[in-house]
Amino acid sequence: MTLSSAQFDNFRLFTMETGTFRLDGGSIFGVVPKTLWAQHVACDEQNRIQLTARVLLIHSTSSGRVYLIDSGIGHKFNEKFSKIYGLDFSGHTLMSSLEYHGFQATDITDVVFTHLHFDHCGGAVLRNSEGESSLAFPKARHWVHQEQWKNARNPNEREAASFLPENLDPLEASGQIHLVEDGHQYEPDFTIEVVDGHTPGQQLPLLSSGDRKLLFAADLLPTTAHLPLPWVMGFDTRPLLTLEDKKRVFARCIHENILLYLEHDPYHELIALGNSAHRPNITWAGTLDDL
Ligand SMILES: [Zn+2]
Question: What is residue 155's predicted lDDT score, i.e. its pLDDT?
């Protein structure tokens, strides 16, 4: 399978597929009954839905920085974990995608974590056969919103299963974690939108190129099936806040023509929204190659 790329003014963008996984359909669609969601997405005999872990590489030609936005699940998990989540790396891995686009791990200068749930940060931490951990991108600064870091290091019991110490302890020990606040700008034309409903301090990278914009949607909009406002994941810690996040961000996307880059949708990489924030529809769908 080919991986797409695009020139976006001063940014060269590269799609990075890091593997697929499966999550329970109930947890993916929250209060929405299966009789409804099953009309839109297929599930396996264990009621699981296949998702992808599609991350984004950004090479800034003006600053020279090479950003990786999220890092997928990674490979340091046991058989039980792999079975529960149906991990499948037969198509792509983080490193095979990196190589496909002609980059090496040491080229990455910045890893930007939207948040620290295991399917977003696990690929950034390696473990060898002796059980020793190291960073997959040793030269990179690793960025996370300060509210997310605080929450991930002191999680409530409900969210703790998503914040794995095997990811977070080595990141903390490395001294390479850098915290950002609301309104952070990584460089000109590269800012963030912060949403708090899924988990506190989820940062969504936002790139601008003239009148074109692209937002990395992460878990604000995991798949196109989550476009209707009440279709909110059961994982979200504050679903009513997610409703407000969705209305605000969708309105902005429609008003400012912002494309949404989807991290977990196996079939949609990039979409444009139309109509209204309360009832958004897809007006265009494609890949980075179509830009
Ligand atoms: Zn998440």
Answer: 94
> 204: CA distance to ligand 1 center in Å?
12
Residue indicated by tokens 């990455």 = 108
Instruction: Give the distance (Å) from ligand 1 centre to CA of residue 115.
Output: 7
Host H or E run for residue 271: strand 270-276
Instruction: For tokens 């040491």, name the residue.
Output: 106
CA 117 / ligand 1 centre spacing (Å): 5
Contact 216, 112 (CB under 8 A): no
5-290: CATH superfamily: Ribonuclease Z/Hydroxyacylglutathione hydrolase-like (3.60.15.10)
Judge contact between 288 and 14, C-beta under 8 A.
yes
Q: 259 with 213: CB under 8 angstroms?
A: yes
Distance 210 CA to ligand 1 centre (A): 30
Give residue 114 CA to ligand 1 midpoint distance, Å. Answer: 9
Q: What is the pLDDT of residues 23-75, one digit of tens each?
A: 999 999 999 999 999 999 999 999 999 999 999 999 999 999 999 999 999 99
* C-alpha of residue 263 to centroid of ligand 1, in Å: 11
Q: Is 105 helix (H, G, I), strand (E, B) or coil?
A: helix
CA of 219 from ligand 1 middle (Å) equals 5
The predicted pLDDT at position 140 comes to 98
Ligand 1 centroid vs 62 CA: distance in angstroms? 31
Residue with tokens 């996370």: 144
Tokens of 180: 């950002």
Which residues have their alpha-adjacent CB atom under 5 A from ion ligand 1?
117, 219
Task: Report which residue type is found at 146.
Answer: Q
Q: CB burial class (10 A; 0-12, 13-18, 19+) of residue 100?
A: middle
pTM of the model: 0.97
Say how many Å lie between the CA of residue 198 and the centre of ligand 1: 7
